[in-house]
């Protein structure tokens, strides 16, 4: 069928461009397909309204959704081989006033990339890897949605499997990458498997390392701290814009200052920056495959600095501005990328002079 061919062509094109998401968007006079590539949305092609609805219906069928239901949002997933690589596709539909839209999140099921290939500065990769050798404690990766926190967590856990034998158990919503050397459990709130309930059972399974997909409420925060206090190394993510904000979030979740001080080992705020391309005149084109598109910078707080922040001796100024200044001086970042991040830092109230 023509719709099957078109759908597969779109998926293969997105995989070839290493897109993280595909947006299938209806318009009154047709439809448009967009891909999120290196954090930016790129228009890929325009299609008719008829083909758009057929494509959405075909993807709903492949993922087991109710094809006839267009009034309520739906979520589902399925796996498919694209470019000789297995991908886990997570689909979400959303009803509009005159049609239906769909977003497809693409997770490449491959061996996690080495930490040194994700970070811009090798010294930060070495420092992050050093935290994974600790016998217990709580390590938090912070940042907004889409900043690559889960990718970094998988890379950290993969680094652990190259050394001593450790029982690594993950609790995620959903499991984004299948890994044979981890024990992976998926949160299913409809079945009563919440983060907190799942973590109680994980603790009975003799783990050395626990990866909690996200600390999202009081109960999951208490369970994460409890696991760290009972001799486990706990890795998790938290939505916070700075290391000091992460400490405040834990306090808002009802964790006492003494428990935070005892368990919290490191807070790492991750930022993905677009790298200057030596082959493109300004912003790297979506179809340029000659260089790295993005890399991670980390504002890391640990040791005495972290303890002073927990004790309320004043927040430590964010280091992201200095890291960007260094990256710009070395030619990794363009002037436009610097300006964009200066505006974002100003918006959240953390003035940084670059």
Task: Walk me through this protein's architecture.
Helix content is 35%, strand content 27%. The strands form 2 sheets. The protein has a 7-stranded mixed β-sheet with strand order 9-8-10-11-7-12-13, sandwiched between helices. It has a 6-stranded antiparallel β-sheet with strand order 3-2-1-6-5-4. The protein has 354 residues and is an alpha/beta fold. The protein folds into 2 domains: 2-108, Beta-Lactamase (2-Layer Sandwich), CATH 3.30.450; 115-347, 3-Layer(aba) Sandwich (Rossmann fold). The chain has helices at 2-16, 49-63, 115-118, 122-131, 149-161, 195-202, 218-229, 243-252, 257-263, 303-310, 320-329, 335-347; strands at residues 21-27, 30-37, 40-47, 74-82, 85-95, 100-108, 137-142, 168-172, 183-186, 209-212, 233-238, 264-274, 294-302. Helix 1 (2-16) packs across helix 2 (49-63) and helix 6 packs parallel to helix 7.
């Amino acid at each position: 069928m023509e719709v099957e061919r078109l759908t597969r062509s779109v998926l293969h094109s997105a995989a070839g461009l290493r897109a993280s998401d595909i947006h299938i968007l209806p318009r009154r006079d047709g439809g448009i397909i967009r891909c999120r590539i290196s954090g930016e949305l790129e228009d890929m092609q325009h299609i008719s309204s008829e083909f758009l609805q057929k494509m959405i219906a075909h993807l709903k069928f492949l993922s087991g959704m109710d094809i006839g239901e267009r009034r309520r949002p739906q979520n589902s997933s399925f796996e498919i081989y694209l470019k000789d690589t297995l991908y886990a596709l997570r689909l979400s539909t959303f009803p509009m006033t005159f049609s239906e839209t769909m977003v497809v999140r693409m997770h490449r099921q491959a061996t996690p990339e080495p930490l040194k290939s994700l970070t811009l500065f090798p010294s930060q990769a070495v420092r992050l890897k050093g935290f994974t050798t600790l016998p217990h404690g709580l390590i938090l990766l912070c940042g907004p949605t889409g900043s690559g926190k889960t990718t970094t967590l998988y890379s950290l856990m993969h680094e652990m499997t190259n050394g001593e034998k450790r029982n690594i158990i993950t609790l995620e919503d959903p499991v984004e990458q299948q890994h044979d050397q981890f024990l992976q459990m998926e949160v299913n709130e409809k079945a009563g498997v919440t983060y907190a309930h799942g973590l109680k059972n994980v603790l009975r399974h003799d783990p050395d390392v626990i990866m909690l997909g996200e600390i999202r409420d009081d109960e999951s925060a208490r369970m994460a701290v409890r696991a760290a206090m009972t001799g486990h190394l706990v890795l998790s993510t938290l939505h916070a814009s700075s290391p000091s904000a992460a400490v405040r979030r834990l306090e808002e979740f009802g964790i006492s200052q003494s428990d935070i001080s005892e368990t919290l080992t490191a807070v790492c705020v991750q930022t993905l920056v677009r790298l200057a391309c030596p082959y493109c005149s300004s912003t790297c084109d979506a179809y340029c495959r000659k260089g790295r598109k993005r890399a991670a910078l980390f504002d890391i707080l640990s040791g005495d600095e972290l303890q002073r922040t927990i004790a309320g001796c004043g927040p430590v100024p964010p280091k992201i501005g200095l890291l960007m200044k260094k990256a710009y001086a070395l030619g990794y970042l363009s002037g436009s990328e610097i300006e964009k991040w200066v505006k974002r830092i100003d918006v959240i109230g953390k003035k940084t002079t670059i």
